[in-house]
Design brief:
With about 300 residues, the protein is of the alpha/beta class. It has a domain of about 210 residues: Alpha/Beta hydrolase fold, catalytic domain (Rossmann fold), CATH 3.40.50.1820. Helices cover about 40% and strands about 15% of the residues. It is built from 13 helices and eleven strands. The strands form two sheets. Strands 1-3-2-4-5-9-10-11 form an eight-stranded mixed beta sheet, sandwiched between helices. Helix 1 packs parallel to helix 13 and helix 6 packs antiparallel against helix 9. The longest helix has 21 residues. The termini are far apart.
Length: about 300
C-alpha cells in the first residue's frame, strides 16, 4: 500500500515536512498556511498513523528514515527541501546523511538529538528492560486519556494543559482536529495511539551514534530552529552539533519550547523562508562556489551563543 500523505500550498519549490511524535501533519496547519504561500508541501503520515502498524516491531528509528525514502520514491521526489520537527527532524537528518542527493536544503526544528553520553546511557537502560519504567514521557503517555465525548470537550480539556499553554486557540484547534477521529455518536478517539507514542519515546536515540559519527559529512545547507526553553534539543546538543558541523546555522526562537512550530508558526515560517531565500540568492550570485555558513542576522531571533 502506498504511504498516506497530505499536501498543502499550490506553487513554488517542493518541500517535504516530517511531523513529530503525536502530532499528525494537519496539526501544523497554521505553519503550513504561511509556508504554503511560497512552497508546495507534502507531508507523509509516519508509521504510527498507518492502519495495522504494530509498535512492537520498532526497535530504533532507522526504519522511519527508510519509510521516508520509500515515500519520496513513490512520489518521484528528489532534490527537495527537507523540513522536520522533533522525530521528523531526526528522521530527515538521518536520511540526508544516508542519501544526501535527496535534499538541497534542510530545516530541522528542535530535533530529538541528545549528546553521545545520553545515547550510551539510554542504550544501557533499554537493554536492561527499564525503558518504559524510566522514560518519564512514556510512563505518562501510556496512561493518557484516549476518548472524549466531543471535539469541543477535547479542546476544552487540552486548553487547560501546561504543554499547550503557548498555543493559540487556532493552533490548539488545528491539533485537536488532526488528532480526533470522530465516531457516529459524536464522540472522538485519538488517531495516534498511546502505545505508538510511548514506543517512539523509548526507541528514540538508540541508533543516534550513527548520526553523531557521520554528522561532519552532511552536505545540504542546514538550519536548525530550536525553542529557547526546549527540553529536547538542549544547548549541549546544539554546541556538539555546531562543533561537528560548523556550517550549520542554529537559531533559538524566544519564549518557545519543544513545540516551537506550533507555538510560533509565523516566526518559524519567516525564518525558514529567510534562510531558503538567502540560500537560493547565494547560489544565484555565486555560481559554482561552495555554500558555507549563511551570513544573516534576522532581528526576530536570538542566535545560539
Amino acid at each position: 500500500m502506498p504511504i498516506p500523505y497530505h499536501t498543502y500550498g499550490r506553487s513554488g519549490a517542493m518541500l517535504n515536512f516530517s511531523h513529530a511524535n503525536g502530532y499528525p501533519p494537519d496539526a501544523y496547519g497554521p505553519l503550513f498556511s504561511k509556508l504554503g504561500e511560497r512552497y508546495q508541501i507534502v507531508a507523509m503520515r509516519m508509521r504510527p498513523l498507518w492502519d495495522g502498524a504494530d509498535p512492537m516491531h520498532l526497535f530504533d528509528w532507522r526504519p522511519l528514515a527508510a519509510d521516508l525514502a520509500q515515500f519520496l520514491d513513490e512520489l518521484y521526489l528528489t532534490r527537495l527541501i527537507g523540513v522536520g520537527h522533533s522525530m521528523g527532524a531526526t528522521t530527515t537528518l538521518r536520511l540526508a546523511l544516508l542519501q544526501p542527493e535527496r535534499f538541497r536544503a534542510l530545516i530541522l526544528i528542535d530535533p530529538v538529538l541528545f549528546p553521545p553520553s545520553v545515547v550510551y546511557t539510554w542504550n544501557l537502560i533499554y537493554r536492561l528492560g527499564l525503558a518504559y519504567q524510566l522514560h518519564p514521557l512514556a510512563r505518562f503517555t501510556r496512561r493518557r486519556r484516549c476518548s472524549f465525548e466531543s471535539p469541543q470537550e477535547m479542546f476544552h480539556q487540552y486548553r487547560k494543559k501546561t504543554v499547550f499553554q503557548r498555543l493559540s486557540d487556532e493552533g490548539l484547534l488545528a491539533y485537536v482536529t488532526a488528532m480526533a477521529r470522530q465516531s457516529p455518536d459524536g464522540s472522538v478517539r485519538l488517531c495516534y495511539s498511546p502505545e505508538w507514542e510511548a514506543r517512539i519515546y523509548v526507541t528514540g536515540v538508540r541508533a543516534d551514534m550513527e548520526i553523531w559519527d557521520d554528522l561532519s559529512s552532511l552536505k545540504p545547507p542546514t538550519l536548525i530552529l530550536r525553542g529557547d526553553q526546549t527540553d529536547t534539543f538542549r544547548e549541549n546538543a546544539a554546541h556538539a552539533f555546531q562543533h561537528r558541523l560548523p556550517s550549520a546555522t542554529i537559531v533559538s526562537i524566544p519564549n518557545t519550547t519543544h513545540l516551537v512550530p506550533l507555538e510560533a508558526p509565523a516566526e518559524t515560517a519567516k525564518l525558514i523562508i529567510q534562510f531558503l531565500d538567502q540560500f537560493e540568492l547565494t547560489e544565484k550570485n555565486l555560481p559554482g562556489k561552495e555554500t558555507g555558513k549563511m551570513e544573516w542576522n534576522p532581528q526576530l531571533i536570538t542566535p545560539l551563543n
